[in-house]
Amino acid sequence: MASQHDSQSHMPEHRHGSTAPSEHRARGPLSIGCGIITCSDTRTPETDKSGQLIREFLTKEGHRIEAYHVVKDEPLDVQKLVQELGRNEALGAIIINGGTGISQRDSTFEAVDGLLEKRLVGFGEIFRYLSYKDIGSPAMLSRATAGLYQGKVIFSIPGSSGAVRLAMEALIIPELPHIVGEMQK
Length: 185
What we know:
By secondary structure, the protein is an alpha/beta fold. 40% of the residues lie in helices and 18% in strands.
């Protein structure tokens, strides 16, 4: 005798419709124009390992680097650059690294947060959770954030190579096409 489960699909049920997250991601754009901003008082394009790591992750997935800048961690300079990139129609995403800590010079969060039109609060929450599993309680010092601005998704992440790798591998790369696809609806 067949059980009730034999006649039903073995696909997991989803509370908000029947489309799996992987199907949502598959419908997003395959190649996204991206901007990279490194906020640092000491790095140059030649010494910017974190910016280069972001570039490697994006290009490996087929995304295009349309803009790359290293800027001092000065709120007005960061805001001006984000506003400039916000007007760049070739971009779907801007990834900012550096300046997300709590030292007096760390001001990227304030510069970016004030521009966001919609915040993706889950990004920072999940990033800190994953960081906590890796480094413990110092993860609470991160002010990583993400949101939407001028039709682009902005991610602001710490500047360490470990934090960049974590954010790119666990969060940004898997969801970037999905987020950009959702913004274009």
